[in-house]
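Field reference: "sequence" (input) and "structure" (output). Example, Anaerobic selenocysteine-containing dehydrogenase:
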Amino acid sequence: MNIATPISAKSKPGHNSVGHTVCPHDCPSACALDVDLTEDGRIGRVRGSSDNTYTAGVICAKVARYSERIYHPGRLMVPQRRKGAKGDGNWQELSWQAALDEIADAFIKAEAKHGSEAVWPYFYAGTMGQVQRDSIERLRHAKKYSGFMGTICTNMAWTGYVMGTGALRGPDPREMAKSDCVVIWGTNAVATQINVMTHAIKARKERGAKIVVVDIYDNPTMKQADVKIVLRPGTDAALACALMHIAFRDGYADREYMAKYADDPAGLEAHLKSRTPQWASEITGLSVEEIEDFARLIGTTKKTFFRLGYGFSRQRNGTAAMHAALSVATVLGSWQYEGGGAFHNNGEIFRLNKSELMGTAYMDPEIRMLDQSQIGRVLTGDPVALRHRGPVTALLIQNTNPMNIAPEQRLVKQGFLRDDLFTAVHEQFMTDTAKMADIVLPATMFLEHDDLYRAGGQQHILLGPKLVEPPSTVRTNLFVIEELAKRLGVYHFAGFGKDERSHIDRILEDSGWGSYEDLKADKWIDAQPDFDTAHYINGFGYPDGKFRFSPDWINGPSPDRTPDSVGPLGPHTELPRFPDHVAVIETVDAEHPFRLATSPSRSFLNSSFAETKSSIQKEGRPEVMIEPTDAERLGVVDGDIVCLGNLRGEIRLHARLVPGAKPGVLIAEGLWPNDAHLDGEGINVLTGADPVAPFGGAAVHDNKVWLRKS
């Protein structure tokens, strides 16, 4: 399926030339892009590549408008040093050499006073490019700085999936187009990964397939559904258990398949005897009829494709919920059929060897690992968050915006305001985090540097070559890491002193995928395994080939396993033996009668695109969606200012009355910058950073709150 035109291909005579690259943003789709290039070296229109069989010519509107972002007048262009108090917004320009010298000097002083762990390189997925994102790890390992434990995105979903399958891979996501029923569960795909809808809608048009959407409110994906399943937040596992109960009860369960491929189907069936539709109805808020109809549809449709999303990674019982939803496909035997099975992420299939890029040879297991989600606790001296060691007094931040996206925002802000904390931020815009820095460095955008990408939501390894020259005063992430390595005395370590193309070449060759020039000629590599491997026809990823209905939550496989020095996290002893609803979510009480989810919006991507005019115009303003009956009871009308709060803090938002969620459920779509809110504080004031079982995570959709008219 690797049908590609050369990267050097030109468009029709009279048109601009066309460059080929890949979207770098934090999204499972990693869309292949065709970019119009003008004669004066600028970009024009950005389109999805029609040659790529997953992107299939379709991209989201925000990336299609990328020229608005790359040429934004507010883009950072020169290094800046803070003047005056932190966060006051007073800056002075300085040279790149002076800025890098000051950063290195601050790191050397921090290490001299408190040891190497006082420095914390903090990064995430602002770019998904392997070189520009992960080179910071090489510097960290070489210098023995504190480790970074990424917990905001994948932990619960990946762990729950792999605990069942034994591997992070699944059916070819393009098979959705060959399905007779596509279940989109836990992802607002229209807003966050539009290509899922491309293939699902193709199945509906060509095969008459039904699209089922399982989510917590009537979002844009729900509006595309043939069957809408709107349940209470954090109750997905209860629904999954009832579906499996009905499958066993009514003969939809494929007993022959389970006998060959599952660990304990008899134990599961006995466990599910009491997990009736009536039981699930009380937990989920769905009617018994809705549950029965859904079970009948998937039970009588062999080619059912369960597309399981990252919503499972946003709730405290998300690991168990993902595993329960995944188990439905195994009870039904859906894996056997083209267009059937369950898919979440293809991370395992790419096999990219990044050991030199990341400097893993210098890794010291004794160095502490700090939790990304708990940056507020780390910076305010919480001894547990600090692993009972010394303080963090210096930060290097790339590709993320914790002053906006991290939970427990009041603690985060308190930490960043410390007089003894030095912060360097490498960014494209003056984000909430950059505003708190001592030194801000301007960063390139993806069209201005070379990088290599892999797509978790599909099956391609893709090349993102440099298409246009960056402004002369901005620099790549790799440049910053290389220059700091020179100043910090580790530049002679293997892996330093290489440019992007050399790193890409080494990764591809060490991984058995050819070379940079090979990938440049083809644009991408289709890494999808054969049908039998993808559908586990030869057995699941465990040594005995059996799917685990009853996983070992602590010792079983997980890509997000915490290091031994940290161990299991959260209420891991409460995880169930078999799929079940686990009541570890923030349930409502008399003081907090509402459940709040901080769901993604269509025009922003995490905190990216929140600076572009068209995205702001489309989103309007920060609002909280309220179910009309709740609003009437509280005397709230559309547009009122309301106050939301819990033990972590309180914020004010405008109310928007929206039917389509369960009563008692509030939705705040974002992610808006803090200063876009009425009081300068964003929605993550209300979210918690307590670790999720068994290996951590940020349950940002799992919050109990009160609400009153302001």
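The two ends are 57 Å apart (CA to CA).
Residues 156-347+542-574 form a domain with the Dimethylsulfoxide Reductase; domain 2 fold (CATH 3.40.228.10).
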